[in-house]
């Protein structure tokens, strides 16, 4: 009886410790990862660097996390499935129209640069890192990849020109599965034992057909589910509640199935599946876009922390001088030289070639592949097998830090970025919105006036205001807006419902606190009986400032004006004076657009630009004193 009680107590205690370890793991990985993402967004830092540092602290540093030991043999397969989701997310962004618009530069980076970088990286590993030839070829195959887990977050936080961003995006996503398969093939060749008669073994001869079959099978597994999704959707045979779960299930299924054929083939299948969905134009993908972006942030955050935390402390002691020399040779010689040779005669400017030649951060795929193949080589007794993992992780850490912090300054120095000033887009070219755009433009703030009516835009263009003739609710309009991305939007057309549609479409990209529309009328702002807040933007100004009201004031001689604050003034003082406060601009930081729905009042400071709608010179009364329409 006593023994049974002791056993039950011990079991309960073990379960309690497991629950505690699980809670600590979730807090460190999920909580710490999302906190690092927020800090990176708030202070404009590379999130990957913070996540990498967090993993080093929780893992080799403090010894709190031991993912490999805790999860066991399922750790690397789970990492592989998570990476498959990430490359699928990247595949959704690979529209073939962008490939055509980016010229042959993308083709050079995905077809020519990879084998050149492989050869150069292998030579550097042998002659600089002093690795055996077989291990050198494996190292070169692993480091040709530029991970989308690193590149895509960097692109998300940097306003690169679309053409340059397309170069990095396509290279990272397309080369990722190819490099994983290449590393697998090299590993199989290294582990093949020669035949008894000294000739070429049957296994060596079979590698070619095996590679061909795995590639074709992966492409088919990626395309077929996309066609099936489109077929079912077009015939109303797929309920909306099952669309996204079915797509995500297909991602995991095809990746796992293809990995059974060849390690790394699952990444190719997931990439092809994403590309097929994007280019087949399956309806209802907007919901998937939002969900996969959110899931992508969580997955990337957790993976970086887990993989870095899994590094043993002994690995840090293996970072010898040859390995560090190899790291810097790959960064400063191999990559730039490989890009230079592969883009000779291409339609890329020297600034683009220099930038792409430097920016090549390695990420989770390189780490995961290195961890698996390094262990297999070491267990097989292959010389130099134990050096693969420290060499690859030294390169990952160096590229994350140096490329993460240098991407924005280098792009700015080469003039490959858009303006760092907060940008404003105004939808609807009419008399008063054109006047507003002109005032903002004259203050040196990027502004874009968007409309589908050419004569109204031509008048604005005469004042030097950048214009865009497009329908923002169309695919063309969204792609055109990517070339001149905005941080804030004002929908200023006479149609309140259309304004709401535009704001609802742009809110997930810009943020719901950054899309505004002229008031649809006081009655329509009722939270219960009026327009849903999710179906419209924040009201511009007061609830009574509808389009007709502002337009009538403009017809009476009211005009927009701006001035620079010389001292701190309370928002209430600005609102009580003559004129109507529209926005406060803090150059290089943010634009505060006045709205009655603001939860926190603005705090204008000296140096801020105040934009107001002012009455004609003889008049002094504020329109707030007069009646406003409902």
What does this structure look like?
- This protein is α/β, with parallel strands linked by helices and 630 residues long.
- The chain is built from 24 helices and ten strands.
- The N and C termini lie far apart (81 Å).
- It folds into two domains: 367 residues, Na+/H+ antiporter like fold (Up-down Bundle); 191 residues, NAD(P)-binding Rossmann-like Domain (Rossmann fold), CATH 3.40.50.720.
- The strands form two sheets. The chain has a six-stranded parallel β-sheet, sandwiched between helices. It has a four-stranded antiparallel β-sheet with strand order 7-10-8-9, covered by helices on one side.
Summarize the structure.
The chain has two domains: 19-192 and 222-414, Na+/H+ antiporter like fold (Up-down Bundle); 424-614, Rossmann fold (3-Layer(aba) Sandwich), CATH 3.40.50. It is 62% helix and 7% strand. Strands 3-2-1-4-5-6 form a six-stranded parallel beta sheet, with helices on both faces. Strands 7-10-8-9 form a four-stranded antiparallel beta sheet, covered by helices on one side.
